[in-house]
């Protein structure tokens, strides 16, 4: 059994290739804390709940949907953490203290990876000691500097902590290319566009029977590029531009005979659902209560306080995600957030959403242009564009490639499992003779 692991910012998946060369995606169940059915993807989240402890009295880590269920159904004594992958470049985020115990970032990632490993081993084909794992084309720190070596070292340590002795890394769009290649009986020059939760990654690669005869498979790679923009960024733009105003953004309060704006830093936290909980400190809540008494729209600040105090950030972003998905199918939809006493309903059009994310779309297009230019590849020399990942379903993203290459040359598929499958195929190539 050859194993590929796609540890993602939002979701993770495992692909395995058996002795017959057939790839399958491992399904993940739950521990009974949620009613969710098995799924081919695992949410890249870990929760620690005081109510669920091991034999030594320490909170048990709950992964994926089980963690979400504990977080939503608990009494406030639950910590839910996510987006670990996006912190790999941070030299400031070394650990988190949870119920008086410190967990390094590597350990938190290892908890998710171990769950993936156990899922693969549950097929009954033996222990998983070596895998091929996905990685973005570029690990870039918040200051814009390259952080590849640092991030990869941390990720390697995390896999070791998860019980995996040997890990080889492959660019995620290259893995998606291996997935696409299985359908080819001829050679093609392919632009692979992989849109994850945290990054959009691109590669130009020669695929088909000719690649499989190359002495070094990496010789087929013409070039790669990537940008730190993807699905999570689109969600944040919906919140910032369309929803935050209902919670007091861009409103004012009266203080010292002046009308002052509600502090914008509050909505910096608000734009990431798992940061909303950071606003629940005594000093911040007291500040917001004081602002509310003198606010131009006190009812909006009241809803913000309710959102914070009742831990409704995840519910808000679930509604946002549903809105984004609906706009991939329709020209307009209703954003509805209904958690008493808060009820917000707002019509959102696709054109409006596309306006909100226009700067990000431009950066994605620029990234593709840079790749083509740097490799000296004219548009006409690209035989096929293969798009994958959740945000490939966004019509405005698809339109970038339809305009440039022609819709007849653009295809998509395996939006949530193509990378895991391709990594497993790569593992079969890499480890079959070892």
Key terms:
434 residues, alpha+beta, Nucleotidyltransferase, domain 5, five-stranded mixed β-sheet, 20 strands, globular
Explain this structure.
- By secondary structure, the chain is of the alpha+beta class.
- The protein folds into two domains: 2-164, ATPase, nucleotide binding domain (Nucleotidyltransferase, domain 5); 186-413, 2-Layer Sandwich (Nucleotidyltransferase, domain 5), CATH 3.30.420.
- It has 14 helices and 20 strands.
- Strands 1, 2, 3, 4, 10 and 11 form a six-stranded mixed sheet that branches.
- β12 and β13 form a beta hairpin.
- The longest helix is centred in the C-terminal third of the chain and has 18 residues, at 358-375.
- It starts with a strand and ends with a helix.
- The relative contact order is 0.14.
- The mean pLDDT is 90.
Can you describe this structure in just a few lines?
The protein has 434 residues and is α+β, with helices and mostly antiparallel strands.
Q: What is the approximate shape?
A: globular
Domains, number: 2
Q: What is the C-alpha radius of gyration, as a whole number of Å?
A: 23 Å
Distance between the termini: 13 Å
CATH fold call of the largest domain? Nucleotidyltransferase, domain 5
Provide the helix percentage. 25-40%
CATH superfamily of the largest domain: ATPase, nucleotide binding domain
Count of helical regions: 14
Biggest pleated sheet: 6 strands, mixed
Class by alpha and beta content: alpha+beta
State which percent range the strand residues make up.
Answer: 25-35%
Given as residue ranges, the uncertain stretches (5+ residues, pLDDT < 50) are none
| Name of the CATH class of the largest domain | Alpha Beta
Task: Give the rounded overall mean pLDDT.
Answer: 90
The number of E-state strands comes to: 20
Would you identify the CATH architecture of the largest domain? Answer: 2-Layer Sandwich
